[in-house]
Amino acid sequence: MAVSALNTFNSSSVDRTSDPSTIARKLENISAGGKKISREQKMKQLKEAAAEFESIFVHNLLKSMRSTIQKTNIISGGNAETIYQDMLDENYSKIAVKRSDFGIARKVYEQFSKTIK
Q1: How far apart are CA 5 and CA 54, in angstroms?
Q2: What pLDDT digit, counting tens, does each position of 19-43 carry?
Q3: What is the pTM (predicted TM-score) of this model?
Q4: Running DSSP on this structure, what letter comes out for residue 19?
């Protein structure tokens, strides 16, 4: 697999309803063989799962960073703000993963691609 193929990760098709345990199961199923699909198809699925993992990682990073900020009662509060903030962080994580190379997806891809036959 060429290095240029590793640089094609993007999160445009990332399914944010997934949680990390679902992604872990996807990665295990892909490397275990599971269904009889071509190696190329498995590699494509692996790339998507790795990008999804990176997006969720960045989202959790943003969420953790935001939790360290002290809030005042004057301008903050309510469940609506919490939901909106989570949605905003989710979109920020998608944009960050598209525009930057954190290297997480690439390393996950490299590690699991060794096990795919």
Answers
A1: 17
A2: 767 777 777 777 666 567 788 888 9
A3: 0.67
A4: -
H helices present in 9-116, as ranges: 20-32, 39-67, 79-99, 104-113
Which residue segment(s) compose the domain that 44 sits in? 14-113
Residue 2 lies in a domain: no
Q: How far apart are CA 22 and CA 53, in angstroms?
A: 10
Contact 73, 61 (CB under 8 A): no
Which tokens belong to 58? 């960045």
Domains of the chain: total: 1
If you average pLDDT over residues 66-80, what whole number do you get? 81
9 in any annotated domain: no
Q: CB under 8 Å to 61, separation ≥6 — which residues?
A: 93
